[in-house]
Amino acid sequence: MVLNWHPGSTAALATAVGLALALTGCGSGPASPDQADVATGGEIPTATSESLVDAAVEEGRLVWYTSNTRPAADAAAGLFEETYPGIQVEVFQAGGSQVTAKVEAELLSGNVQADVVDYSDGSVAVDQAARGVFERYLPEDADQISEELQDAEGYWFSPYYLTSTIVYNPTIIAEADAPKSWQELTLPKWSGKVGMASPDYAGTAVGTIGTWEQEFGEEYIAALGANGLTVFEGFGNVHDAVLSGQTPVGVNLSFRALTAQAQGEPMAYVTPEEGQVMLPSAAAIIKETENINAAKLFANFLLSDELQTMMTETVRYFPAKTEILANVEGMPSPTEMKTIKGDTEVMAEPEYVARVKNLFKEATS
Question: Where are the beta strands (DSSP E) in 209-360?
């Protein structure tokens, strides 16, 4: 069952209060996010999927909050239920900032409904881990992914990562004329022709804007706004605007362009001269969840070859297990891409996120 966020409710969710969605029978998290008791050191708990199945089936359910796309969330939940009959997956799917706000609202109420959270903007998990929101757990295949894609203390791990880049409609803009750098988007040539997702909806927009701010300074964001940057709710809306020609150029997640190309749609992307923005995800188990065995089984599942392959083939995410890319036609190798990445620790600070959102809002209003 996938529960979607409806655009008409954005203003209410932005307050992060009163958004609770009644999913009965779920576990509860810490009473307050500022009453954390974060344990460090010692062996990180782990378990094989085989050893977890019986207890997980007895629990019978799993609640997953995710900022994956709807198709990705549907496919992952379906594959898990097919692999482990008897465990129902209930999914809340929304933009990254909406998922974050929902978790924060439930932390304040002392009743977190999720068992597992999965943020496309991994910096959120760094902040919440420091406040004692998560259980320590090491998925059974964690030794097959980079150390940079998992918390040293075992509070979160990255099942995949995304990149944001420049996309354009090749039926409207010739390849030779397409912007080749982030800086080019501020030129008069592209005035009113570039679309971008709102950081109030998309967590990956926060990560992108924060990286811009750290790499190019506040002046860059102000220049984008002054050049008539069009702000849409989410990256899916940007995707549609580029295809329709409403904004023939967009700042978007590369997986959307790769998926469009695989489907024969008019969508091209470039790696900016400065580099695509690297956006690691983060998944974690909510502390004191009642469905702990199902949650651990699902964490293992997120790093399984089956799920990693499916997510790469169907929605073109970059898998944590990078060797899977060798079997997926049309996917570039991460080692061949030039990337830039903001300071995750800085972008995990709520005050910094608020400043970045405000900076962007002032520039584009």
Answer: 230-232, 249-253, 268-270, 276-280, 282-285, 318-319, 339-340
pLDDT in tens, 48-89: 999 999 999 999 999 999 999 898 999 999 999 999 999 999
Question: Where along the chain do its domains lie?
Answer: 2-159+281-331, 162-279+336-364
Domain 162-279+336-364 classification at class level: alpha beta
Contacts of 2 (CB under 8 A, 6+ apart): 70, 73, 74, 77, 91, 93
The answer to whether domain 2-159+281-331 and domain 162-279+336-364 are alike in fold is yes
Question: What pLDDT score does 40 carry?
Answer: 57
What is each CA distance from 74 to 66, 120, 184, in whole angstroms? 11, 16, 37
CA–centroid distance for 301 within its chain: 17
Q: What is the pTM of this model?
A: 0.81
Chain segment 191-237, per-residue pLDDT in tens: 999 999 999 988 899 999 999 999 999 999 999 999 999 999 999 99
**Can you tell me the distance from the alpha carbon of 178 to that of 159, in angstroms, rounded to the nearest whole number?**
32
The position carrying tokens 């926060």 is: 206
Burial class (CB in 10 A: 0-12, 13-18, 19+), 233: middle
Please say whether the beta carbons of 36 and 107 come within 8 A: no
> Is the CB of residue 55 less than 8 Å from the CB of residue 47?
no
| pLDDT (0 to 100) of residue 330 | 80
Q: Are strands 318-319 and 160-168 parallel, antiparallel or unpaired?
A: antiparallel
What class has domain 2-159+281-331?
A: alpha beta
| Contact of 251 with 208, CB cutoff 8 Å | yes
Using DSSP, state whether 63 is helix, strand or coil.
strand
For 275-300, letters b (16+ CB in 10 Å) and e give: bbbbbbbbbbbbbebbbbbbbbbbbb
Q: In the chain, what percentage of residues exceed pLDDT 70?
A: 89
How many other CB atoms are found less than 10 A from the CB of residue 140?
A: 20
Rounded distance between C-alpha atoms, residue 58 and residue 62, angstroms: 11
